[in-house]
Amino acid sequence: MRNTVIVAAMAALFSLPLQAAEPAPLSQGEVRKIDVGAQKITLRHGPIASIGMPPMTMVFEVEKPELLEGVSAGEKVNFQVQQQGSRYIVTELQVVK
Ligand SMILES: [Cu+2]
């Protein structure tokens, strides 16, 4: 809450649009494994600036199973991830054609 107020004050001060209104840029990855039942996806991903994560291969949760539709292992994807405590949740997933 306090941070929100500070960010809002700074945005007003510099007449910039609020960062919160804009989603973080998508991160790049390659699909290693998909588990639709468990709503999980294993990605070899590049750096994720929004959560300060270096490149690695790891398992993510997906916000909803529909995100995994039409996605296969081996495909390159752009994705958005949100950190909730120790959970990393993919909220957007696009196959790179
Ligand atoms: Cu990671």
UniProtKB/TrEMBL annotation:
It holds the Pfam family CusF_Ec. Coiled coil: none annotated. InterPro entries: CusF_Ec (IPR021647), CusF_sf (IPR042230). The keyword Cytoplasm does not apply. Keywords: Signal. Gene3D superfamilies: Copper binding periplasmic protein CusF. Residues 1-20 form the signal peptide. Transmembrane segments: none annotated. It comes from the Bacteria. This is Copper-binding protein. It comes from Ectopseudomonas alcaliphila. The lineage of its organism: Bacteria, Pseudomonadati, Pseudomonadota, Gammaproteobacteria, Pseudomonadales.
